[in-house]
UniProtKB/TrEMBL annotation, chain A:
<feature type="transmembrane region" description="Helical">
    <location>
        <begin position="21"/>
        <end position="45"/>
    </location>
</feature>
<keyword id="KW-0275">Fatty acid biosynthesis</keyword>
<dbReference type="GO" id="GO:0030497">
    <property type="term" value="P:fatty acid elongation"/>
</dbReference>
<keyword id="KW-1133">Transmembrane helix</keyword>
<keyword id="KW-0812">Transmembrane</keyword>
<dbReference type="GO" id="GO:0005789">
    <property type="term" value="C:endoplasmic reticulum membrane"/>
</dbReference>
<dbReference type="GO" id="GO:0030148">
    <property type="term" value="P:sphingolipid biosynthetic process"/>
</dbReference>
<dbReference type="InterPro" id="IPR007482">
    <property type="entry name" value="Tyr_Pase-like_PTPLA"/>
</dbReference>
<protein>
    <recommendedName>
        <fullName>Very-long-chain (3R)-3-hydroxyacyl-CoA dehydratase</fullName>
        <ecNumber>4.2.1.134</ecNumber>
    </recommendedName>
</protein>
Automatic annotation (TrEMBL), chain B:
<keyword id="KW-0007">Acetylation</keyword>
<feature type="transmembrane region" description="Helical">
    <location>
        <begin position="163"/>
        <end position="183"/>
    </location>
</feature>
<dbReference type="InterPro" id="IPR001104">
    <property type="entry name" value="3-oxo-5_a-steroid_4-DH_C"/>
</dbReference>
<keyword id="KW-0443">Lipid metabolism</keyword>
<keyword id="KW-0560">Oxidoreductase</keyword>
<keyword id="KW-0521">NADP</keyword>
<keyword id="KW-0812">Transmembrane</keyword>
<feature type="transmembrane region" description="Helical">
    <location>
        <begin position="263"/>
        <end position="281"/>
    </location>
</feature>
<keyword id="KW-0256">Endoplasmic reticulum</keyword>
């Protein structure tokens, strides 16, 4: 598809308005700062305690605050932290590593579109890492969920309703099979589009 | 004095077809048939013909010489994709709930524990619920065959998968709990069930009355649109306050069924259906207002004075 200078200029004008851009920048700066705070808090707590025990509680409040913010962007990440780690102690440790590494990298890239080439290339590795991290975390939590009947409702009850959280988690894991490739290829397409524009600009110069 | 018609692809602007010697009083429908001859894979119902590449579709009834075109008319074509008739979709999506619910009611094997196979519930409300649910879908099937007069002949093929998943999925989910061996009957017993049944029946009659009234607005085979008004049937007097009382009554019927079965999945189904019907009602209300200057101002889309 050929693009002329006029086309590129027109496309430039169509981007998000000033207010939206300001919001996105502030949002991403705040998110990066927040996750950095949590990461720093983790390191300090580990150094103070000398072990992983109780690590979660030291950052629980800021963690919860920034999680709710992230809900706007990536629902699956919130689901993972709240639903799985909030209740399943053994899994928290494992989660923290995958989760925060990915989030910090992700949000720091969002603060500037100039970092887009990096962002869109790093994701090649980060996405599979993040997804396998999530899958492993859920899988590790399964026995505990089954044993305690966490978030599950059984018959009989007056609402004539039941819910098996264990089964639901397995379904969630299976749903990654069709969903992950779609997300991954969407990012690849986005990357071609965004980095494609960058190449156009430099050609025009 | 003949006209010529050229048909271009709306996206690529490629010339797809040139028809010379077209009668000026030819309709878009006839032009679609002619286009179909040169492109057999695009049957008329999947053709969208417009004056403007990004504009609205022209209607089959539009006449060539009444359109703002010269002696050679240029139309743009967009492929609507594989189509399926409304009647086929409705019959398929309603057959599912009817059959599936009965399978759960009769406790066909592999649903519940083996010792319950082919047993019946000891609660009489479960039998009543089965009768109501079955009656509802038989009514829908018969209305599809004998009452409704559809504006469009077809819809995109993918809709049948989407719609059937919705109806069949929810029907199975509801039926599983209502017919379950561990089902708990309504808290307030006979009082609750009687009230629920009255509400349900009232709304079934109401919904049917509206369907008949809407049918009578439109002569057979026509696609005319008129403002619906209350008739001698008291169930239609709700037209004074509401644009789409068929949806109002449908909501009422499912509220009745929810109350009757006291089952949370039924409540979810009612809620989701209500949201969808509200979207449809608002759209219909808006097109009534756009099309008719003298549309009664007191009417709301679906809930009197509220929504």
């Amino acid at each position: 598809m050929k693009t002329t200078h006029g086309d590129v200029a027109a496309r430039k004008k169509k981007g998000p308005g000033a207010l939206a851009t300001a919001y996105l920048v502030i949002y991403n700066v705040v998110m990066t700062a927040g996750w950095l705070v949590i990461a720093v808090g983790l390191v300090r707590a580990y150094l103070a305690r000398g072990s992983y025990h109780g690590l979660y509680y030291s950052i629980e409040k800021p963690l919860k605050f920034f999680q709710t913010g992230a809900l706007l962007e990536v629902l699956s990440r919130v689901f993972l932290t709240w639903a799985v780690t909030h209740s399943v102690r053994e899994v928290r440790r494992r989660l923290l590593f995958y989760f925060h590494f990915e989030i910090i990298i992700g949000y720091s890239f969002n603060t500037s579109s100039w970092l887009n080439p990096l962002r869109y290339t790093f994701f090649f590795a980060l996405y599979p890492m993040g997804v396998s991290g999530e899958l492993l975390t859920i899988y590790a939590a399964l026995p505990h969920v089954q044993k305690t009947g966490l978030y599950s409702v059984t018959l009989p009850n007056k609402y004539n309703f039941s819910f098996d959280y264990h089964g639901f988690l397995i379904l969630a894991m299976v749903s990654y099979i069709p969903l992950f490739p779609q997300l991954y290829f969407h990012m690849i397409r986005q990357r071609k589009k965004v980095l494609g524009h960058v190449e156009d600009y430099s050609k025009v110069e | 004095m003949f006209s010529a018609v050229e048909i271009l692809d709306a996206k690529t602007k490629d010339k797809l077809c040139f028809l010379d010697k077209v009668e000026p009083n030819a309709t878009i429908g006839e032009i679609k048939s002619m286009f179909h001859k040169s492109h057999p894979q695009w049957y008329p119902t999947r053709q969208s013909i417009r004056l403007d590449a990004k504009g609205k579709s022209l209607k089959d009834e539009d006449v060539l010489q009444h359109l703002p075109v010269g002696t050679t008319a240029t139309f743009y074509f967009r492929d609507l994709g594989a189509q399926i008739s409304w009647v086929t979709v409705f019959l398929t999506e309603y057959m599912g709930p009817l059959v599936l619910y009965l399978m759960f009611y009769f406790r066909v094997p592999f649903i519940y524990a083996a010792k319950y196979d082919f047993t019946t519930s000891k609660h009489w409300v479960v039998h009543l619920a089965c009768m109501c649910h079955s009656f509802h879908f038989v009514k829908r099937l018969l209305e599809t065959l004998f009452v409704h007069r559809f504006s469009h002949g077809t819809m995109p093929l993918r809709n049948i998968f989407k719609n059937c998943t919705y109806y069949w999925g929810f029907a199975a989910w509801m039926a599983y709990y209502i017919n379950h061996p561990l089902y708990t009957p309504p808290i307030y017993g006979e009082q609750q069930i009687r009230l629920a049944l009255v509400l349900f029946l009232f709304c079934q009659i109401g919904n049917f009355s509206i369907h008949i009234a809407l049918r009578n607005l439109r002569p057979p085979g026509s696609k005319t649109r008129k403002i619906p008004y209350p008739t001698k049937n008291p169930f239609t007097w709700i037209f004074l306050l509401v644009s789409c009382p068929n949806y109002t009554y449908e909501l009422g019927a499912w509220l009745g069924f929810t109350l009757m079965t006291q089952c949370l999945p039924v409540a979810f189904f009612t809620l989701v259906g209500f949201i969808q019907m509200t979207v449809w009602a608002k759209g219909k209300h808006r097109s009534y207002l756009k099309e008719f200057r003298d549309y009664p101002p007191l009417r709301s889309p679906i809930l009197p004075f509220i929504l």
